[in-house]
Amino acid sequence: MSILINKDTRLVVQGITGRDGGFHASKMKAYGTNVVGGTSPGKGGEMVQGIPVFNTVRDAVKETGANASVIFVPAAFAKDAMMEAADAGIRLIVCITEGVPTLDVVEAYSYIRRKGASLIGPNCPGLISPGKSLVGIMPSMIFREGGTGVISRSGTLTYEVVYNLTAKGMGQSTAVGVGGDPVVGLYYNELLEMFENDPGTDSIALIGEIGGDAEERAAAYIREHVTKPVAVFIAGQQAPPGKQMGHAGAIISSGTGTAAEKIAAFEAAGVPVADEPSQLPALLKQRGHL
Amino acid sequence: MKIHEYQAKEIFANYGIPVDKSIVCRSVEDAVKAYEQLDSQKVIVKAQVHTGGRGKAGGVKLAGDEIELRRHAAAILGMDIRGFIVDRILVGQAVNIDREYYVSYVVDRSTKSAILMLSREGGMDIEEVARTMPEKIHKFAIDPSVGVPDYLAREAAFKLFDEIGLVRQAATIFQKLYSLFVENDASLAEINPLVLTKEGAIVAIDAKMTFDDNALYRHPKIALLNEPTEEEKKEQSAKSKGFSYVHLGGDIGCMVNGAGLAMATMDMIKLYGGNPANFLDIGGSSNPTKVIEAMKLLLGDRNVKVVLINIFGGITRCDDVASGLLEAFKQIKTGIPIVIRLTGTNEKEGRALLRGTHFHVAETMGDATRRAVELAKQYQD
Fold first, then answer.
1. Which chain A residues touch B366 with a CB distance below 8 Å?
2. All domains in chain A, ordered by first residue
3. Would the CB atoms of A106 and B145 count as touching at under 8 Å?
4. CB-CB under 8 Å, A214 with B246
5. Cβ–Cβ of B214/A276 closer than 8 Å?
6. What confidence category does residue A115 fall into, taking pLDDT thresholds of 50, 70 and 90?
7. What are the chain A neighbours of B127 within 8 Å (beta carbons)?
8. What percent of chain B has pLDDT over 70?
9. How much is the mean pLDDT over chain A?
10. Considering only CA atoms, which of B329, B270, B334, B268 is closest in space to residue B300?
């Protein structure tokens, strides 16, 4: 089992005629994702990597029954693309685009919610349910089917963790990169709930970083609602205050959002915190007596 | 991106938010001229710097006559406030303050919306209020599809004022401040304090705004107000090449692909007893030109004694990354030891390519970090 995406996911790629859109559409298709179409206004009727291109998401949904979308359009057009997908009836919208203005995300998120759809990202690597579906830009070869759910604010750090999990024989049910911006869609608590309810998930690795207080809220949520073993790694202990560490959301402001506060919150909730990413598999095994 | 108080007040005034009458000055003579123009016995002189705490640092003073004004202007101009040298002061009419309030709009991560924050405890550090008396801060999440309707602005204003005339005045200010916030893609628009004068008027006597860097492309006039520090200039020049760079001051330079992994790398260096020189995320791919540019940036820091390159090869395979590094280092002449850690797709092939070269090749993040820390210590001895 898995969360959010599986064999029934029918994916449309928004911005498929762009360089990144085309490249990753073919990667996703090669992995076995059911990529049913792409969009690019004015290029409807063309084919990219054997995938039909439509002018609008609504056309793509009507013709192909698409239920998920992944967005590769430039930052200035991302808000519009997210809203178009929601309006066309897409249920899961994954926005890979980096550098989207925060208030654009605020507006798109509110619209998507009203349409009853879910958003992942922006500025995220997407998600993968190994052996079933890949939606995004994650390097599929490092993943294996298994029972560990992975939630992360980062890209390559997630791969680092997954790589260590796979090497220790711990495959993944679903791995989700929620995105590195201050405002993004689905976050720790919603995903923790999904993993807790997913019979195919037996443990959860959570990878956080400095900025905001979502980790603190996740710690409280885990204490109250999560019975499966969870282990955590937090990046940014050495980050100086007031500096953005690559991700727009990774910033310690007015002394809050520090790694130390987040680590303390997890420890207080009885959730083990790894000193280095390679320790996560052992921490999960200890907790779960797997 | 930050702007100065006087620049924020100009934007406030354009939106019809009442501000105190003030003039920005670059010299004592300017200040004296401003004093004549303001036609007010008492004036306030404020340092214009991109940092808080200027009051505590002595950067805000009242002057009751020209002699006092000259003395304060001369003292504040050239002052060092938390590393910022004051080159401009704002001279403004002193206001007869009856009460002080706090008002701001800020983007809230948890509600994923703009929120209006208010408090009757104005004039003090709002973080301090949040810590000690959180019940005195009122928050209203704003639905972006409706903005701030009259009823909501009134409801908020009643948190600060009891008299309906003042509530109406304040409500209008809250609505204007919201327009200003969203129309300019601000990440913060703050009035602290918003004051009620003894004459019964509501006036913003301070103004603070920061802007979303990702949205500056659609606000060219605001982008022009950018005044980066020397360090920020270095960071911005790195950004224009597709990097994220933050100087940290240690002796182990890091080059990493991905922000999260880059943060984890600098944490590991510290964990193993070393000191990271920087945070450097060179982005998803690692082509030779990028590596060359990144090395230039690292070697430009004279404290750097060792370079640690930590690359996770995902979509870009490790053997391609290794060839790229070899290619890049044909063009870089340096005696500084370089530790490379490559993991991911085709890692064995990648490492094989690097073996027998002058690089120190490591398999895990732990090994690589330990090696870099040892090398940095040897250099010190």
1. 276, 278
2. 10-120 (3.40.50.720), 139-286 (3.40.50.261)
3. no
4. no
5. no
6. very high
7. 254-256
8. 98
9. 93
10. B334
Q: HSE (CB half, 13 Å, CA atoms) of B72?
A: 26
Strands B244-247 and B80-81: unpaired
Contact A235 B267 (CB under 8 A): yes
Chain A residue numbers touching B212 (CB-CB < 8 A): 101-103
A27 touches chain B (CB under 8 A): yes
pLDDT tens digits, residue range B185-202? 999 999 999 999 999 999
pLDDT at B285: 60
Name every chain B residue with its beta carbon within 8 A of the beta carbon of A233: 264
Q: How buried is B193 (Cβ within 10 angstroms: 0-12 exposed, 13-18 middle, 19+ buried)?
A: buried
Number of H helices, E strands in chain B: 13, 18
Residues above pLDDT 90, as percent of chain B? 67
Q: Is A12 helix (H, G, I), strand (E, B) or coil?
A: strand
A247 noted as active-site residue: yes
Q: What is the pLDDT of residues A93-114, one digit of tens each?
A: 999 999 999 999 999 999 999 9
A34 forms bridges with which residues in the sheet?
A10
Phi, psi of A220 (to 5 degrees): -65, -40
Of A27, A156, A239, the CB nearest to B258: A156
Q: How confident is the model at residue A290 (pLDDT cuts 50, 70, 90)?
A: very low
Are A49 and A22 in contact by the 8 Å Cβ rule? The answer is yes
Could A157 and B267 be called an inter-chain contact, meaning their C-beta atoms sit closer than 8 Å?
no
Strand pairing partners for B312?
A: B343
pLDDT score of B328: 82
A265/chain B closest Cα distance in angstroms: 17
Q: Is residue A240 within 8 angstroms of chain B, CB to CB?
A: yes
Give the pTM: 0.91
What integer is the mean pLDDT of B37-57? Answer: 91
For residue B247, list its beta bridge partners: B278
Q: How confident is the model at residue B284 (pLDDT cuts 50, 70, 90)?
A: low
